[in-house]
Amino acid sequence: MSIPDQKQTSASSTPPYSGLAGWINRRLPVISAFRAEYVDFRVPRNLNGWWNFGAILTLVLGLMLASGIFLAMNYTPTDAGAFLSVEAIERQLSGGWLLRAMHMTGANLFLAALYLHLFRGLYYGSYKAPRELLWLTGLVLMLMVMATAFAGYLLPWGQMSYWGADVITKAVGAIPGIGPTLEHIMTGSDHLGDIFLHRFFVLHFVLAFLIVGVVGMHVAAVHVSGSNNPTGVEPRTPKDTVPFYPYYVSKDLVGLILFAMVFATLMFFWPNMLIEPDNYTPADPMHTPADIEPEWYFLPFYGLLQSVPSKFGGLVAAAGSLLVLFALPWLDRSPVRSMRFRPLCRIGLLGVVCAFIVLADAGKHHAQGGWLIAARLAGLYYFGYFLVFLPLVSRTEKTRPLPSSIAASQGDA
Ligand code: HEM
């Protein structure tokens, strides 16, 4: 019995597949699905460079998994062996230095691309209906990526790994009620050693693969709602969109090549640029480093953590700064998406970026004097923007006139 080719029987313009492609497609329509989602898929014609970061993130995720698997084959998750095994990868394993440089550079650039990707969504209002679930899956990804990066940073078991773990496990232990139990689940014993490292190695490895699954959902959600665009106006006529191939395949390729050049430059010339020198000293529970500070991408949250006098309060502030983003689609009541047309909210949002940078700077300094005041003011501004300013101003703000269509916004009415 022959199985009908869905596409052959439909009135769509998709060509019928013959030979092996037709045989596969009739049984599992992956070829026609790929064609529908990545060739014929209609995308707004006016996407700018900010829309490259989704493709960039996907590429870096692939590189992280590929390099991570080979690193894991040579890593020993024990108190006595972890630091030495990483040194052996760097110095004795053939090509090991390249694997590690790729993984470290990848981690830094992944987080940088993630923040830019998130900012794009904030600026162009991509979290608004009908893209709420797309936004929420993105935030889940962000939490998973942060947990993976934190677990990964512990694995070399240098001084910063150890003392970073000490700060976080104690902060978790300070949660009223369940804190001590959670701390015990993390550490597995009364000190940070073999059991702890084993658990975080497994967590790091497993989370990385779970992220791939959630990325699948995230990208599926993009394909259901379609991409937003810099005007925030939905496409109305075929003139407003172009097919993904060749237009955005080539545009994404340009973005990927530029990004690959930055990646290669950092990886080959400055692989250790963002690494704390202290982490090349083996973990020593008897000697606390003068300054304990996390990787740059956690600094704003660390700044918040330090700015509140109680450990638990600090944890609530740091976690709350991420959780508040989950409510964003419902906090922002404006019918207009893009900040291009929302002068007051745009200034407010740029203030959030400044507050984030101030918090990061404060996270690098001891929480006292001017830095403490700056961190508290920046924290108040951050929460004030999302919880007070945006809900109030988004209802009343006088927005600039929207273009009648995407094509019209480019003078092609
Ligand atoms: C592992 C991390 C992530 C990967 C691999 C990823 C991948 C992608 C891809 C491939 C796209 C479509 C291309 C594009 O619009 O750039 C996209 C769109 C989108 N992503 Fe992500 N993403 C990630 C994390 C996030 C995060 C943390 C957020 C924010 C909460 C987010 C929010 C969005 C939104 C709102 C869109 C649609 C944007 C629009 O059409 O305007 N993503 N993502």
From TrEMBL:
Q: Which Pfam family name is an example for this entry?
A: Cytochrom_B_C
Q: Which residues bind a ubiquinone?
A: H223
Limits of the Cytochrome b/b6 C-terminal region profile domain: 234-404
**InterPro entries noted in UniProt:** Cyt_b/b6_C, Cyt_b/b6_C_sf, Cyt_b/b6_N, Cytb/b6-like_sf, Cytochrome_b, Cytochrome_b_N_euk/bac, Di-haem_cyt_TM
Q: Which residues bind heme b b562?
A: H103, H204
Where is this gene product found? Answer: Membrane
Q: Which GO terms describe its cellular component?
A: respiratory chain complex III
Q: Which UniProt keywords apply?
A: Electron transport, Heme, Iron, Membrane, Metal-binding, Respiratory chain, Transmembrane, Transmembrane helix, Transport
A GO term, aspect molecular function: quinol-cytochrome-c reductase activity
Cofactor list? heme b; heme
Asked if the Swiss-Prot or TrEMBL record annotates the protein with the keyword Ribosomal protein, the reply is: no
Positions annotated to bind heme b b566: H117, H218
Name the residues that span the membrane. Answer: 50-73, 101-121, 133-155, 201-222, 253-270, 312-331, 343-360, 372-393
All residue ranges annotated as the Cytochrome b/b6 N-terminal region profile domain in the record: 20-231
Give the record's membrane topology.
Multi-pass membrane protein
Q: How does it assemble?
A: The main subunits of complex b-c1 are: cytochrome b, cytochrome c1 and the Rieske protein.
Q: What does this protein do?
A: Component of the ubiquinol-cytochrome c reductase complex (complex III or cytochrome b-c1 complex), which is a respiratory chain that generates an electrochemical potential coupled to ATP synthesis.
Instruction: Return the protein name.
Output: Cytochrome b
Per the record, the gene is petB
